[in-house]
Write a structure and sequence with these properties.
By secondary structure, the protein is of the alpha/beta class. It has five helices and nine strands; from the N terminus they run βββαβββαααβαββ. It has a single domain, classed as P-loop containing nucleotide triphosphate hydrolases (Rossmann fold, 3-Layer(aba) Sandwich), CATH 3.40.50.300. β1 and β2 form a beta hairpin. It binds adenosine-5'-triphosphate. Adenosine-5'-triphosphate binds next to α1.
């Protein structure tokens, strides 16, 4: 299925402070856009606009999928979102967290598919442990399973490898490589090692 992202003259402000303005770009299926810049330069804000979690001050972003144009705020079925502040339920197991989020997303997923997802992110065999017993890196891996539940054509990754060890970073490499085969990825990062993912680079200036 075709998927692309068109951003036109996008701007974001908080009160009188403009974070960025006049950002225009296009991301096609199979491409990774990396958004780079200093702390406070607007990377997370840009990603939140693409996720439809907040509205731009000017300009627009649209996904084109299956012959239709979708604004981010009505495109949650197209988007998988990973960010360090994405809350998971500590009192539930990994499997229960995924079942809960699948229900919220109205995705039908059975135990075998959950096991496959947990294997994919290197948490095979740990699905019945409560999140309270997970390390921060393990919890961050689980955010990838959450993002991939509905196999979305768009993955938005804010600080993708924060708290992850070498093996966790390899899992992210694999997730991005697989996503390239059928969709698009946008990565927000200030880790120079993650520039290697970029087919396209959006560089924000000093805040
Ligand atoms: N909810 C908010 N209200 C007011 N200002 C905000 C809000 N969120 C972000 N900002 C401001 O917008 C600017 C960009 O913030 P943003 O979080 O997008 O930057 P970032 O590049 O992701 O930073 P970091 O690398 O630290 O994650 C900063 O000056 C920040 O203080």
């Amino acid at each position: 299925m075709e998927i692309s992202l068109q951003v036109t003259d996008l701007a974001a402000s908080y009160g009188p402070r403009t974070v960025f303005a006049q950002v225009s770009l296009r991301v096609e299926r199979g491409e990774v856009l990396v958004v780079s810049g200093a702390n406070g330069s607007g990377k997370s804000t840009f990603l939140r606009l693409l996720a439809g979690l907040q509205s731009p001050t000017a300009g627009s972003a649209h996904y084109h999928y299956a012959g239709e144009a979708w604004e981010p705020r009505s495109a949650s079925h197209l988007i998988g979102w990973v960010a360090p502040d994405l809350a998971l339920y500590r009192e539930l197991s990994a499997r229960e967290n995924l079942r809960f989020f699948a229900k919220v997303r109205r995705v039908a997923i059975d135990d075998a598919a959950i096991d496959a997802l947990l294997d994919e992110i290197g948490l095979g065999g740990r699905g019945d442990d409560r999140l309270a017993a997970y390390s921060s890196g393990m919890a961050h891996r689980l955010r990838y399973a959450y993002a991939l539940l509905h196999r979305p054509p768009v993955l938005l990754l804010d600080e993708p490898t924060v708290t992850l060890d070498t093996r966790g970073a390899e899992v992210v490499d694999q997730v991005i490589a697989r996503q390239r085969q059928h969709g698009i990825v946008v990565v927000a990062t200030n880790d120079p090692r993650e520039l290697r993912y970029a087919d396209l680079l959006l560089q924000f200036g000093q805040p």
